[in-house]
Amino acid sequence: MGAEAKKETLGFQTEAKQLLHLMIHSLYSNKEIFLRELISNASDAADKLRFAALAKPELFEEDSDLKITVDFDAKKKTIRISDNGIGMTREEIVENLGTIAKSGTAQFLESLTGDEKKDSNLIGQFGVGFYSAFIVADRVEVFSRKAGEPAAKGVKWESSGESDFIVEAVDKTDRGTSIVLHLKKEEKEFAEGFRLRGIVRKYADHISIPVMMLKEDHGIDDVEEKEDGKKAKKKVPEYEAVNSARALWTRPRNELNDDEYKEFYKHISHDFEDPLDWSHNRVEGKLEYTSLLYLPTRAPFDMWNRDAARGLKLYVQRVFIMDDAEQFLPMYLRFVKGVVDSNDISLNVSREILQKDPAVDSMKSALTKRVLDMLSKLKKKNKEGYQKFWDEFGQVLKEGPAEDGANKEKIAKLLLFSTTHNGEPTQDQSLEDYVSRMQEGQTKIYYVSGESFNTVKNSPHLEVFRKKGIEVLLLTDRVDEWFISHLMEFDGKQFQDVTRGELDLGKLDSDEDKKQQEEQDKNAASLLERIKTTLGDKVAEVRTTNRLTDSPACLSIAEDDMGTQMRKIMEAAGQAIPESKPNLEINTGHPLIEKLDKEADEDRFNDLTSILFDQASLAEGGQLDDPSSYIQKLNKLLLDLSN
Ligand code: ADP
Ligand code: MG
Q1: Who has greater pLDDT, 439 or 111?
Q2: Ligand index nearest the alpha carbon of residue 43
Q3: Cα(286) to centroid of ligand 2, in Å?
Q4: How far is the CA of 130 from the centre of ligand 1 (A)?
């Protein structure tokens, strides 16, 4: 006890210090957001109290009218934001306002460039929070008393936002938290009635509890009691709510404007940028619930962190129950933010119960459909917006076919690809686009996958497709082979890796092509034999090919072997990979092959064959087993040439 009462000076956690510094220096163009953050925190604190009081009504201390009050003092240049929410203990205040709990913060900070303009955008995706107070204030005091604790358990936190803060025990009779901002000289305009009112109204509109301000131009000095207790008040202070204080999602769509939706998004998501799109729905019938789902504009910095918070804010009959209720959406839609408010879930629900509740299951599948429909609409009505979405979240969506087989077809329609049609790395072609351009007699959707766009775009395997004008998908994301293997087909057409197995173009091959091929095969028998002897067990088989028009040779993989990208993923994960050998396919019409066939000198034949094999493997973006031997052989040939 005694020790607690003492005044203590504590240092900010390193990351908190860095973030504070950045915030103060890079958010100058959007200063007023500190009010959004502080009002948002006050509203969260009210939500938390209401939830805790479900089990312990005495926490309300006979004051269940939750509200936020914003006061100002123009003379002293101060703003005060008070709430009667859950409040904080001394430990909590040190923990919450001295550190940054988000995992991945260190990496996030490393990713910053030092360029303040660029970084201010990045900070946005991190969420600025309480520290934004220091954008406008050079000193911040926080007074707090946790609900259910005696007045003597109050705590004061104070800092100038540099390297440390002070905590000390104070008496605080009223429950909750009060934040006093001592504005920097140049920011004093925020402590003026008209300006402040305007901003508060903007950021409080969607908040579900009243945000109170003094009527008209009353300043805080008008209300303070004189120390001697005399009636010294000039005016009777009259407060009024500046917002409608109805939970935004409970209001009908036609009463809400875009700005209100956007502000609400920022409140629940801790995001800084406007959302890309949203969908607001009330469902009545067997289950009754309201959902408001948002697509962010930008991926959060921790999207690939498995433990990162995800999911919706859950309310039951307007009462906040929990953040990050991940039971309502599948993992591959983890970028969606929003609120679900249900009438069918019990108020004392827990995460464990949610997992087993069949009502939650049906809500999950309905909400999943909602999101997929919202995406599909966005794709139709706003190509540019959808492209933005795809660039940020396309990789995550590709997890869908594996996780959610039932919605495979819907997800497939949302995918975007690069293809040989436009030959650009911009992924902007859909499978529907592809199918609409399919050739007569074409039954498959062809793709080639590899490490980089240039590797796949210039793959020798595409030669015959180019000749016949057949479109091929160019896949370069690491996950592509894996997700295609789960997707399997689209619109009744199977996916076919162009580097796999014997190329069977079905009806796309004319009888003439086929005859020519057979002819070639017959004549090439002895050459194939010679090559196979030279390469030995580097290859499974040597055969002629219909894949090539310009290149002399290429490698193909057996029908059931693992693709190259999958191999790399498994390798990186340290997993054992089944051994497999490629086939070497040669283009008998190519002058180099003709030359090889006529080569009588065994040594030169062997060298040429090795070079051909190595080149075929290089063209796939593969790595040579013995690059220096390749170079030696090639140089020898080059010398021969110049003699
Ligand atoms: P976030 O709101 O994203 O968690 P903030 O930086 O805004 O991050 O706030 C940090 C934490 O401080 C909050 O999570 C909350 O626990 C605590 N906090 C801030 N403001 C209040 C408040 N008015 N009442 C109670 N707790 C608060
Ligand atoms: Mg916050």
Answers
A1: 439
A2: 1
A3: 36
A4: 6
SS3 helix, strand, coil % of the chain, rounded to 5? 45, 20, 35
Name the residue at shortest CA distance from atom 1 of ligand 1.
Answer: 129
| 277 CB-near residues (< 8 Å, 6+ apart) | 294, 295, 374, 378, 382, 385
Structural domains in the chain, CATH included, are 3-241 (3.30.565.10), 250-389 (3.30.230.80), 415-642 (1.20.120.790)
Residue 225: the pLDDT is 55
Residues 643 and 640: their CA atoms lie apart, in Å, by 5
What is residue 594's predicted lDDT score, i.e. its pLDDT? 92
C-alpha dihedral sign at 601, 607, 613, 616: negative
504 backbone φψ class: left, alpha, beta (φ>0; ψ -120 to 50): beta
Q: Which residues line ligand 1 (CB under 6 A)?
A: 37, 41-42, 45, 83, 85-88, 96-97, 127, 129-130, 177, 270
- Segment 117-135, tens digit of pLDDT: 677 667 766 777 899 999 9
How far is residue 232's CA from residue 221's CA, in Å, rounded to a whole number? 11
Q: What is the pTM of this model?
A: 0.85
Centre of ligand 2 to C-alpha 42, Å, is 8
